[in-house]
Amino acid sequence: MTIYTRTGDQGQTSVIGGRVYKDDERVEAYGTIDELNSFVGLAGSCADQAKFADLKEDLQQIQQELFDCGSDLAFAKVDERRFKVTPDMAERLESWIDRYEAENPVIEKFILPGGTELASLLHVCRTVCRRAERQAVTLSRKAEVNWEAVKYLNRLSDFFFAAARTANARQQTPDVEYIRSGKVFRN
């Protein structure tokens, strides 16, 4: 099997049901999801098995679901019967967020992304996820999409925020508050 096909040499690529230019909004959206998936894999590989077995398992599940999101956004012509992202996936993320947040110290102000290496990588995941979500919304204004995939990305960025804070908390590394922040979080 060869990895190269030469079918994209003229600046187009295949999506489910057709071909589009490589800078098409659809390709930008699922390409950013692919980028996010790579960062999630990196974060998982940096997570110590003893301290973060639960997080490593969650991240691997998320990687599977990111493929589902990308697939759902890759349809040239929407076929709802083939969508993979369902409402229960975002709901499950909410339960994971609640579980991690229970470990985190209370915050009232914005925090700087950083701390431990793992927390920093999870913050990178959060920001790339936000970009993927924005691109999916842009796509939705021009084409029909599975809105459950957009909702999943929205919740996923919240998950990465909570998980990054837990990564710091489990390693006794405090979050650093943004010094000019007002109180923005309610307890």
TrEMBL record:
Keyword annotations from UniProtKB, A to Z: ATP-binding, Cobalamin biosynthesis, Nucleotide-binding, Transferase
Q: One Pfam family, please name it.
A: Cob_adeno_trans
- The protein's annotated pathway: Cofactor biosynthesis; adenosylcobalamin biosynthesis; adenosylcobalamin from cob(II)yrinate a,c-diamide: step 2/7
The organism's place on the tree of life at top rank? Bacteria
Q: Where are the transmembrane segments?
A: none
Reactions this protein catalyses = 2 cob(II)alamin + reduced [electron-transfer flavoprotein] + 2 ATP = 2 adenosylcob(III)alamin + 2 triphosphate + oxidized [electron-transfer flavoprotein] + 3 H(+); 2 cob(II)yrinate a,c diamide + reduced [electron-transfer flavoprotein] + 2 ATP = 2 adenosylcob(III)yrinate a,c-diamide + 2 triphosphate + oxidized [electron-transfer flavoprotein] + 3 H(+)
InterPro entries for the chain: CblAdoTrfase-like, CblAdoTrfase-like_sf, PduO-typ
| EC number of this enzyme | 2.5.1.17
Where would I find the Cobalamin adenosyltransferase-like domain in this sequence?
Answer: 3-167
Family as reported in the entry's similarity comment: Belongs to the Cob(I)alamin adenosyltransferase family.
**Protein name per UniProt:** Corrinoid adenosyltransferase
Q: What is the lineage of its organism?
A: Bacteria, Bacillati, Bacillota, Bacilli, Bacillales
